[in-house]
Amino acid sequence: MVVEDELIVAEDLVHWLGSLGYTVGARAATGREAIRLCETTRPDLILMDILLPGDMDGIEAAAIVRKRFDIPVVYITASSDESTLARAKLTEPLGYVLKPFDERGLYTTIEMAMYKHQSERKLRNSEERFRLLYEHAPVAFQSLDADGHLLQVNKAWQDLFGFSPEEVNGRWFGEFLAPDSVPRFIAAFTQFRNSPATDSITLTIVKRNGMRLSAVLKGSIAVDHRGGFEMTQCVLENRAPSPERTEVSGTEAMEPGTTKDVSAGLPGAWLVASPDGLIYGVTAELERLLESSAERLCSRRLHDICRSEAEASALLAQVTRVGTVAPRALALCGPAGAAIETTVAGFVLFGQDAHTGSVCLQIRKR
Questions:
Q1: Count of beta carbons in the 10 Å neighbourhood of residue 227
Q2: Cα–Cα distance between 262 and 251 in angstroms, integer?
């Protein structure tokens, strides 16, 4: 879209853009007209004159366009005074074209603006996926600073401890441990800060209501752009002690016929599988839903319990490619082959090398 009130300048700009291979889908002479046209045309980019007639100049219009439509804006201006540029910067434009403009400079500015906007959109999408994964994962996550103070906790952590983020952010994690676990945490955390990944430590945590639980703390170190310590990212797995249980990491291979106890950390009907669909473990809720035991389900493939192998393949392909999968319909095989209509959602819990991991799927009966 070209937003320019001077007719001759607008005509020249449309001509030049056409010669460069762009299509001008809309033209406007005022800021309000540009906003109105965005509703119907949704251009990929707007060339916006800063000085426009009426009660709304190009800077005000650009701010509304970016907020409401997320359309990148490149300013066209004959003015380069400090006050105008200072106002324009606040709207986060992706470039400036000074009048009189030349074809080469126009092309370079537009291409760079489009590339930068696409990169920013991909980054925002990636950050949103990570935020959703962090917030809604059924495992308790926490981030600690260099002194062991809580920076961030997810919903599962809040449910486990019974505190809200506002109540715990900035507090030392040792406050939420039993006295006999505090020295162990201090010693381990000192080593954590100098290691790329933490070892597992068993701690006794204290919930808001005073109840004590045994939990396993695992984590890894996040570093800044200079390689210095930034934070420790930790997982807390609430596990009842059992001498017969063998702890198995999410990315280790499992022998056929063995099962993995996942019910302690995953409330509801859950399934944990390898990226190619080999089932590692199921919760008791899923056993009841399918009317089948964990022993029978584990070491089978997801494809074996789905009515459609194609749907199972598509589900695994999406979750392993993106890292998460939004709720979608999936028909499972019930007793005697009867169909069970479900909704499935999930995520990939990556291993320490960030290349392998376990697919975690929550299954709800429709």
A1: 7
A2: 14
pLDDT band at residue 193, thresholds of 50, 70 and 90? low
- Would 195 be classed as within a structural domain? yes
The pLDDT tens digits of the residues spanning 107-122 come to 888 888 888 888 777 7
Q: Give the CA diameter of the chain.
A: 84
Q: Which range of residues forms the domain containing residue 359?
A: 270-365
Q: To the nearest 10°, report the CA torsion of 306, 308, 314, 316.
A: 20
- Give the pair of three-digit tokens for residue 107: 């092309």
Spatial separation of the C-alpha atoms in residues 201 and 214, rounded to whole Å: 10
Q: Is the peptide bond before 100 cis (omega within 30 degrees of 0)?
A: yes
Residue 131: CB atoms within 10 A of its CB come to 11
Q: What angle do helix axes 82-89 and 58-69 make, rounded to 10 degrees?
A: 10
Residues 6 or more apart from 231 whose CB is under 8 A from it?
Answer: 143, 144, 145, 146, 151, 221, 222
Domain membership of residue 258 (yes or no) is no
Q: Rounded to a whole number, what is the distance in angstroms from the first to the last CA of the chain?
A: 46
Q: Are residues 15 and 115 in the same domain?
A: yes
Tell me phi and psi for residue 242, to 5 degrees.
-150, 120
Give how far the C-alpha of residue 301 lies from the chain's centroid of Cα atoms, to the nearest Å. Answer: 27
Residues 151, 120 share a domain: no
Full-model pTM: 0.38
